[in-house]
Amino acid sequence: MHPASSIIVFTTLSGMGFGLIAMLGLGAAPSDGTAGLVACALAFVLTGIGLASSTFHLGHPERAWRALTQWRSSWLSREGVLAIVTLGLFAIYAALWVLAADRVAIVGILLTLLSLVTVYATAMIYGSLKTVPRWRTGLTPLCYLLFAGAGGALLAATVSSLMGSGAQSSLYAALILMVIAWAAKFIWWNRADRTTLASIGSSPETATGLGNIGKVRLLEAPHSSPNYLMKEMVYRVGRKHVQKLRLLAVVLGGAVPVLALLVAAVSGGGAGLLVIAVLSHLIGMMAERWLFFAEAEHAVSLYYGHR
């Protein structure tokens, strides 16, 4: 699949944004109005940029609102509806927090649940596709949820540390979630490397229905230049590049943040370290999401001679 930059930004930033909202709903970050303003503004910026970037991948962004009407059958539509509901409730929660220093516990818990369900819906846009075998697994939404939680906890710990308040609970939550998230991702990668189109019996022969008369090969392309399907769904990335990018993703997205969190937890401070950890994690997650799309084999590639 083509790793479109708009979708990479969407899944990365909105995931961290909704992860932060989930953590704030659980009581992370100081409860004073100033801390609330900083934390809530950061969450709104991340989710806003992420959701806005997703529309750039549409042929007609001005028609994006129409997708909301298909919530009965479309995970994309469900994600859009859930995002609007979650952000609307978060606006109320943020106003009470900033203006009255009042964090209503029941609203916070509901926000956490809605945020997690929104991230789940985002993951299922891809995890529900039968045409991409490596995505169609329960590990896909699990990884999305764990990374959202880890990123959100890391952001909450960073805000708390910058505001000069205790960040220990968020630090430990981020540390635990970060380790579990990357462990799940390694399991996901291990499964994905074994789950190819060929491994499930799909080939040009099965795609065309001509396997009974022999091996099918592409004699001549049906068009003289790449079409939409080839640009969006037929993408190849070299194995060496994959290994290098996986290492980059793990080091920047996992190892650096974990090390920074450990130092901050032991020293009881380290706001600067946590800022570096956030930036490193963001870059690492973008590399992870790039690979998520670039490595995916779509069944339509079989009609273009790929095996």
Share of residues in helices = 55-70%
CATH superfamily, called what? Formate dehydrogenase/DMSO reductase domain
The level 1 CATH classification is Mainly Alpha
CATH topology: Formate dehydrogenase/DMSO reductase fold
For the record, the CATH architecture stands as Up-down Bundle
Average pLDDT confidence is: 90
**Total E-strand runs:** 0
Give the SSE string: HHHHHHHHHH
The outline comes out as: globular
What does this structure look like?
- 67% of the residues lie in helices and 0% in strands.
- With 307 residues, it is mostly helical.
- The protein has one domain (5-304): Formate dehydrogenase/DMSO reductase fold (Up-down Bundle), CATH 1.20.1630.10.
- The model has no long low-confidence stretch (mean pLDDT 90).
- The chain crosses the membrane at residues 7-29, 35-59, 80-100, 106-129, 141-163, 169-188, 245-265, 271-292.
- This is Dibenzothiophene desulfurase.
- One of its GO terms (molecular function) is dimethyl sulfoxide reductase activity.
Condensed summary:
By secondary structure, the chain is mainly α.
Features:
307 residues; mainly alpha; Formate dehydrogenase/DMSO reductase fold; 10 helices; 67% helix; 0% strand
Task: Draw up the topology in text.
Blueprint: H1 5-25, H2 33-54, H3 75-100, H4 105-127, H5 139-162, H6 168-194, H7 204-208, H8 228-233, H9 239-267, H10 271-294
